[in-house]
Each structure stands twice: as structure tokens, then as C-alpha cells.
């Protein structure tokens, strides 16, 4: 029996690789002779870099960059030498997790460090880059990244703009002549987990600004500043991508990736499944087990278990989802290729206890699933 284990992380409990390992232990307890294949996944958000490195065997590298507030830090990125491909996770440089609650300031945080990661990848000889756009602390439309890559953004007096999204309101000139020429040959794909445009009520500032410290007044300021950035960009490059689905991802980094790096924007789980060759792995599998912290109706928007189920459905491969909890509307997932779904808890317990026991519960539930599946013909 071939079993493929491809979970996402279980937030605040296990990363995707640890979750897959816990599942594998349970499967082998039930069926020691099973052929078990682990393929940790993510949907482009938190943990995506870890999942890609684990699944592809990419080399973990580090670069000295600046965080969202301009402070130095060591950021990880992945290098898949055989494919000349770099894995760049925005959150490693400009992530919200590196800032304390009182440090979150969407007016002034910058993506400069993401540009520094691109420079490290170019120095390594990258011909392709997979940009992962979850977990940002920024709302600068990717302007900081452009500055690190050699662009000049100046006000009407010719002064360089200050870091952050608010300063874009003063943008007069966008000079791209200094962009690193190696970017022209770099193929960029951006993994997004939202379809929001850059501006407006569904835009980067309105929807995601509050979690980055933006007040109602800040949201209006940032939306107007990003609008100015989009206007000047359109004047320089001749087309307008402000309404592109996904342009609002990561504080407008989706816009910058598509507009200035020529990136294609795709759902994160699709890009990561492609990179990890999941379809080939599950083609002859008897059973696929996936999971993450919660399965509900919103999972249909592109969460890992649904991406896996949709891929497996095309191959008529059964998929079981193990989730920390099953929320409202989870039954809709059954129409997307999920064969069955189970919550992990084996009795009443607090959240703290559930988090502490996640590995144990995953193993036990995986064991039960495989015991039942292997005797289904009996």
C-alpha cells in the first residue's frame, strides 16, 4: 500500500515536515510494510519556504538583509541548484513575525530586504525565482524592493523618497534605468493566497492594513499613496495593473512583482505542488492524507488540503483530511475531492492541550485511518 502524506503546518503546533513525520509514524504503526512518502506543503503563506526546502532538497542559504523597519537581520532563502531556482519568502525579510505589536507601522515599513534577497539569488546565478508572498508587515507596494534592486523613486524636488508606503504620496519620478540588468533574464513566479486588487475597499490597505498597525486614517493615506504609485508606474510603463487579481497581496507586493519583475501570479498551493511534483507522487498512491489546523468553508479559497484534493480528484485518488478542527461549511470540501475529514481531538481538551498534543493526535488519527482503509474490503 502506497500512502502519500502531504500536510500543511499546524499553526502554533507543528511545521509541515513535523506534521508529515507524525503522520508517518501512525501509518507505519498500522501497516509496517506500507510505502510511505512525505511531501510537506504550504499555500504560499507562513512555512512555505520550509516546505519547499524539505520537499525538494533545496539548499538553505542566508543573506544579511534589512527587516521591515530597516534593522539588519539574517534571512533564509532556498537554492535549488539543479534548476537554477531560488525560493524567496517575503516574510523572511519583511515579515510581521519579526516585529512586536508596538512596532507595527504600515505607513513606514519597507520591502527593501526582499530586494536584497533577490540580489543574493542573482549573485548565485538564479535563472528562476519563486516568490512567496505571505505574512508581510509592509504596505509599500514593493517600492522598497525596487529601491534595493536599483530603481530611484524621487519627489518633485528630486529627493529620494523615505521608506514605506505613505511616502509614495510624494512620488514624482520613477527611474528604472538603474535596475539590476540581470533581472531581465530572471523568470519570476509569485505565490499568492488572495485575489485582492491593489486599491479600494478590497485593496491591500483596507483589507490587510489593520493587522499591520494601520488605523482608519492610515488606511486612507496608504490607499491614496498606492494610487499615486500606480499612476506613475502606468505613465512610465504604459499599462495599469492596479486591478489585477492578487496585486494587493503582501501590501501590494503582488503589484510590484507583476509590474516590474514580469511575474506571473498564481495560487500558492498550485505553485508549490508543481515545484514538489505532487501530481506524479500521488498518481499511483492508494491513499493521500493531508491536513492543517482548520478545515472550513473558507478553505475552498486555496488552502492546502483543497489544493491537494483537487489534484487527487483528477487522478481518482482518495484523500483524507486531518484537521485540528472542522469549522462551519467544511462539508463543501467533499465536493472538491475530499473523501473524508476528521478532527484530531480524542476528547474534551483546552487549546493549549490540543497544541501540545498535536503530533501525538496526528499519529493516532493517521493510524486509525490506515487501519480502516487497509481493511475496507474485509
Automatic annotation (TrEMBL):
The keyword Transferase applies. Keywords: Kinase, Transferase. InterPro entries: Glyc_kinase_flavodox-like_fold, Glycerate_kinase, Glycerate_kinase_RE-like, Glycerate_kinase_sf. GO terms for molecular function: kinase activity. Coiled coil: none annotated. It holds the Pfam family Gly_kinase. It comes from the Bacteria. Belongs to the glycerate kinase type-1 family. This is Glycerate kinase.
Amino acid at each position: 500500500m502506497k500512502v502519500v502524506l502531504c500536510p500543511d503546518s499546524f499553526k502554533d503546533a507543528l511545521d509541515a515536515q513535523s506534521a508529515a513525520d507524525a503522520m508517518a509514524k501512525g501509518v507505519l504503526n498500522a501497516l509496517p510494510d506500507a510505502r510511505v512518502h512525505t511531501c510537506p506543503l504550504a499555500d504560499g503563506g507562513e512555512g512555505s519556504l520550509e516546505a519547499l526546502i524539505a520537499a525538494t532538497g533545496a539548499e538553505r542559504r542566508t543573506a544579511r538583509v534589512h527587516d521591515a523597519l530597516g534593522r539588519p537581520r539574517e534571512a533564509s532563502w532556498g537554492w535549488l541548484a539543479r534548476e537554477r531556482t531560488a525560493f524567496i519568502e517575503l516574510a523572511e525579510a519583511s515579515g510581521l513575525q519579526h516585529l512586536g505589536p508596538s512596532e507595527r507601522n504600515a505607513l513606514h515599513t519597507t520591502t527593501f530586504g526582499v530586494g536584497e534577497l533577490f540580489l543574493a539569488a542573482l549573485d548565485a546565478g538564479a535563472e528562476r525565482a519563486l516568490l512567496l508572498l505571505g505574512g508581510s508587515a509592509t504596505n509599500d507596494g514593493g517600492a522598497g524592493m525596487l529601491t534595493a534592486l536599483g530603481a530611484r523613486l524621487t519627489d518633485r524636488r528630486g529627493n529620494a523618497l523615505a521608506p514605506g508606503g505613505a511616502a509614495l504620496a510624494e512620488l514624482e519620478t520613477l527611474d528604472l534605468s538603474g535596475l539590476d540588468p540581470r533581472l531581465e533574464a530572471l523568470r519570476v513566479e509569485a505565490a499568492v493566497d488572495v485575489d485582492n486588487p491593489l486599491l479600494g475597499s478590497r485593496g491591500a490597505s483596507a483589507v490587510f492594513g489593520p493587522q499591520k498597525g494601520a488605523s482608519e486614517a492610515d488606511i486612507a493615506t496608504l490607499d491614496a499613496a498606492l494610487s499615486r504609485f500606480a499612476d506613475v508606474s502606468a505613465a512610465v510603463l504604459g499599462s495599469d495593473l492596479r486591478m489585477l487579481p492578487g496585486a494587493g497581496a503582501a501590501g501590494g507586493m503582488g503589484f510590484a512583482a507583476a509590474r516590474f519583475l514580469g511575474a506571473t501570479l498564481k495560487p500558492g498551493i498550485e505553485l508549490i505542488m508543481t515545484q514538489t511534483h505532487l501530481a506524479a507522487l500521488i498518481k499511483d498512491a492508494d491513499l493521500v492524507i493531508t491536513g492543517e489546523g482548520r478545515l472550513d468553508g473558507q478553505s475552498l479559497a486555496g488552502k492546502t488540503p483543497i489544493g491537494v484534493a483537487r489534484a487527487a480528484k483528477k487522478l481518482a485518488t482518495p484523500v483524507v483530511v486531518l484537521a485540528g478542527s472542522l469549522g462551519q461549511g467544511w462539508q463543501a470540501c467533499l465536493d472538491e475531492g475530499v473523501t473524508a475529514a476528521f478532527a484530531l481531538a480524542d476528547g474534551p481538551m483546552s487549546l493549549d492541550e490540543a497544541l501540545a498534543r498535536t503530533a501525538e493526535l496526528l499519529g493516532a488519527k493517521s493510524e486509525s485511518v490506515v487501519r480502516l482503509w487497509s481493511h475496507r474490503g474485509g
